[in-house]
Amino acid sequence: MVYIVSWDEFVDRSVQLFRADPESTRYVVKYRHCDGKLVLKVTDNKECLKFKTDQAQEAKKMEKLNNIFFTLMARGPDVDLSEVTGKEPMETQPTKKGRGRKQ
Amino acid sequence: MHRPPNKFSPPGGFRRADHQILYPLCDSREKKSLQCLTICKEYPSEVLLQLDPFLNELTSMFEKSKEKGSVWVTLKRSSLKSKLQKRKLSSAGESIEYRCLIRATDAKKTISTSVGAKDHLRFQASYATILKAHMTALKKRERKDRKKSTEAEKKEGTSTTTKPKKP
């Protein structure tokens, strides 16, 4: 099984794969404490994307991916992910009703 | 076509709509009953739990697998309904409610839970805490050590000559 080297590529392709077939796509995480290895797999039973690592910082990135998948799977594949990834804040600030300049 | 057995579709057993794996009751034929016993040993059934007990069990799985073994966690979107139920709901015009099915196994036992849109944020937070607490065997980036070692090498290599500036 060929492992994907770039984290961002893995994330993009996994989300694409899920959105294409949300019914059969699954996300698997395997952790071996004795070897200090973490392997991530996303598959729709036709195509398989894998990522492996032994770095603690990748585990932090994996947590974000977990959040992405939780949101996608619980709410639906059409959910806007910018809330989860935090790239663009979706929360609109409440517009203050201004009466004009204070005089 | 021979399908290799995997932990999610055991031979001789069938998956119920709620993902519980069941095995046929032993009948009078000895061979079948023996087969039933061996299957049960190889493929223990999956336990569906509520969110908090699932998290507790997951924690204990991680703790047990520290010396050897792996922990697998699988996330999948599911409505937890059979095809028949889905057909009925779609023909009635009702929307099927999907949930996120989470399975965890350490090759000895399997636990599972399902999370809906309302509780996924709370679960996500607790789950992240558990992972952070247990995935401690991963290497931390030793940038400082790398820098020190490269500096030491440079010092040994170029004692009199100054470093040439690279354009």
Automatic annotation (TrEMBL), chain A:
Subcellular location: Cytoplasm
GO biological process, one term: negative regulation of translational elongation
Molecular function GO terms recorded: 7S RNA binding
Predominant localisation class: cytoplasm
CC terms in the record's Gene Ontology section: cytosol; signal recognition particle, endoplasmic reticulum targeting
Pfam families in UniProt: SRP9-21
Keyword Ribonucleoprotein recorded: yes
Region (Disordered): 80-103
Domain SRP9 stretches: 6-66
Entry coiled-coil feature ranges: none
Keywords: Cytoplasm, Ribonucleoprotein, RNA-binding, Signal recognition particle
Similarity field: Belongs to the SRP9 family.
Cited function: Component of the signal recognition particle (SRP) complex, a ribonucleoprotein complex that mediates the cotranslational targeting of secretory and membrane proteins to the endoplasmic reticulum (ER). SRP9 together with SRP14 and the Alu portion of the SRP RNA, constitutes the elongation arrest domain of SRP. The complex of SRP9 and SRP14 is required for SRP RNA binding.
Protein name: Signal recognition particle 9 kDa protein
Organism: Brassica campestris
TrEMBL record, chain B:
InterPro entries: Signal_recog_particle_SRP14, Signal_recog_particle_SRP9/14
Predominant cellular place of this UniProt entry's protein: cytoplasm
Role played: Component of the signal recognition particle (SRP) complex, a ribonucleoprotein complex that mediates the cotranslational targeting of secretory and membrane proteins to the endoplasmic reticulum (ER). SRP9 together with SRP14 and the Alu portion of the SRP RNA, constitutes the elongation arrest domain of SRP. The complex of SRP9 and SRP14 is required for SRP RNA binding.
SUPFAM superfamilies: Signal recognition particle alu RNA binding heterodimer, SRP9/14
Ranges for region Disordered: 138-167
Subcellular location: Cytoplasm
Organism, as annotated: Brassica napus
Biased segments, Polar residues type: 158-167
Phylogenetic classification of the source organism: Eukaryota, Viridiplantae, Streptophyta, Embryophyta, Tracheophyta
Self-association and partners: Heterodimer with SRP9; binds RNA as heterodimer. Component of a signal recognition particle (SRP) complex that consists of a 7SL RNA molecule of 300 nucleotides and six protein subunits: SRP72, SRP68, SRP54, SRP19, SRP14 and SRP9.
Pfam families reported in the protein's UniProt record: SRP14
Name of the protein in its database record: Signal recognition particle 14 kDa protein
Keywords, alphabetical: Cytoplasm, Ribonucleoprotein, RNA-binding, Signal recognition particle
Superkingdom as given in the UniProt entry: Eukaryota
Protein family: Belongs to the SRP14 family.
Biased composition (Basic residues): 138-147
